[in-house]
Amino acid sequence: MKHFIVVLIGLLLFSCGKETQHDFTLKGHVKGLKKGTVYLQKQQDTIMVTVDSLHINGSSNFELHTSLDEPEILFLILNKNDNQEGTVVFFADKGITEINSTLKNFNFDATIKGSKQQETLDEYLVMMSKFNNKNLDMIKESLESQRVQDTVKTLALQKDFDNLLKRKYLYTINFAVNHPESEVSPYLAISEVPNTSVKFLEEIYNALTDAIKASKYGKQLKALIEERK
């Protein structure tokens, strides 16, 4: 009987220790946040799963934790007064990631410091922001040309839109090919240009290192190519 109790206590201690194990920590600060809930989520197949959450009451600082088998995209979601304030998407790896933002502009003010994959993703997003700003300028021009019924300019702007989209696709493909050692490469292929030609998807996949081909997003890219064929 004593032996049974000792074994049972050991199992309980092991179970409790196992439950608290994590190898990823997110340290966050949201300026102006006093009350609300923050969620750390990941995507499993097509479902968003919450891996940790914390109710905020008075402090703008928080920590969230989870376990990671490998680098992958995670989502920090802020919910305040039963309304979702926004989502910050970031590339996580084992260790510590820091996210600082504001309550007023949760999405746009977010600064992320952590994994090397996030640094690579940030490099890509800087160029994407330039494309997006150009796109917004063209939308304004298009609306104005339609308002004054300038059909010639409207048609010319449509061609510019198409060319800008092609440039964005080509930049994404080239960026992925030029970063074959990063999990960001196959992630961009499946998230940003999944509808591009199979030839370009294969070009990205074939450029990947063996380690990245075996990663979560490398496997998803391979599956996408096989599905598209």
**Given the structure, what is the number of helices?**
7
Structural class: alpha+beta
Helix content: 40-55%
Computed Rg: 23 Å
Strand order of the largest sheet: 4-1-7-8
Q: What is the domain total for the residues?
A: 2
Q: Average pLDDT, to the nearest integer? A: 89
Tally of extended strands?
8
The poorly predicted ranges are: 4-19
Main sheet specs: 4 strands, mixed
Strand content: 25-35%
- Shape, principal axes of CA atoms: flat
Sequence of secondary-structure elements: HEEEEEEEEHHHHHH
Instruction: Give the terminus-to-terminus CA distance.
Output: 63 Å
Structure commentary:
By secondary structure, the chain is α+β, with helices and mostly antiparallel strands. The protein contains 7 helices and 8 strands. It folds into 2 domains: 22-114, Immunoglobulin-like, CATH 2.60.40.1120; 119-228, no CATH class. It has helices at residues 2-19, 116-147, 151-177, 184-192, 198-207, 210-213, 216-228, and strands at residues 24-31, 35-44, 47-57, 61-66, 72-80, 83-92, 95-102, 111-113. The strands form 2 sheets. The chain has a 4-stranded mixed sheet, with no helix packed on it. It has a 4-stranded antiparallel sheet with strand order 3-2-5-6. Strand 7 (95-102) and strand 8 (111-113) form a beta hairpin. Helix 3 packs antiparallel against helix 4 (184-192) and helix 3 packs parallel to helix 5 (198-207).
